[in-house]
């Protein structure tokens, strides 16, 4: 499988299917992790440009994974978008404090997600 542009880390099958469908339809390469430990291994292996990261996951929380990624000089520039079913201000602040670039509350609009992905991929800081 060539290079991975996006990593999806979420333990909810519906969310993974939704994001996978959007990306597949657009021909964007991606990989999937279903727990925090796997997400950390995969982000190191694939070095994606964009990383969709669920806050509540088994083994390691999204906050822990995000903080570890942002501490790593090689991965620091990865654009992290935190995903959560909780729309609480506290989670939003904790996401940004742990190093996330953005925060999306589930359920989300596939159209909005796709527009944001395309925007990021065209950006000189995250794109090719």
Give the gist of this structure.
With 128 residues, this protein is α/β, with parallel strands linked by helices. The protein is 44% helix and 18% strand.
How would you describe this protein?
This protein has 5 helices and 5 strands. It has helices spanning 13-25, 36-46, 62-71, 89-97, 110-122; strands spanning 6-9, 30-33, 50-54, 79-84, 102-105. The longest helix is centred in the N-terminal third of the chain and has 13 residues, at 13-25. It has 128 residues and is an alpha/beta fold. Strand 4, helix 4 and strand 5 form a beta-alpha-beta unit. It has one domain: Rossmann fold (3-Layer(aba) Sandwich).
Topology:
Elements: E1 6-9, H1 13-25, E2 30-33, H2 36-46, E3 50-54, H3 62-71, E4 79-84, H4 89-97, E5 102-105, H5 110-122
Parallel strand pairs: 1-2, 1-3, 3-4, 4-5
Overall body shape: globular
Largest sheet: 5 strands, parallel
Average residue pLDDT: 88
Q: Secondary-structure element order, as H and E?
A: EHEHEHEHEH
The oligomeric state is: single chain
Give the class-level CATH name: Alpha Beta
Number of beta strands = 5
Low-confidence blocks of residues: none
State the main characteristics.
Rossmann fold; alpha/beta; 128 residues; single chain; 5 strands
């Amino acid at each position: 499988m060539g290079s991975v542009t996006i990593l999806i880390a979420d333990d909810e099958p519906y969310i993974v299917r939704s994001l996978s469908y959007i990306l597949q339809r657009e021909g964007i390469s991606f990989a999937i992790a279903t727990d925090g430990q796997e997400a950390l291994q995969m982000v190191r292996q694939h070095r994606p440009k964009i990383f969709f990261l669920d806050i509540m996951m088994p083994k390691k929380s999204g906050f822990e994974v995000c903080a570890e990624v942002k501490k790593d000089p090689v991965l620091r520039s990865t654009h992290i978008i935190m995903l959560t079913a909780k729309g609480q201000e506290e989670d939003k602040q904790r996401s940004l404090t742990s190093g996330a670039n953005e925060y999306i509350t589930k359920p989300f609009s596939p159209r909005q997600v796709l527009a944001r992905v395309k925007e990021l991929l065209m950006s000189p800081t995250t794109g090719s």
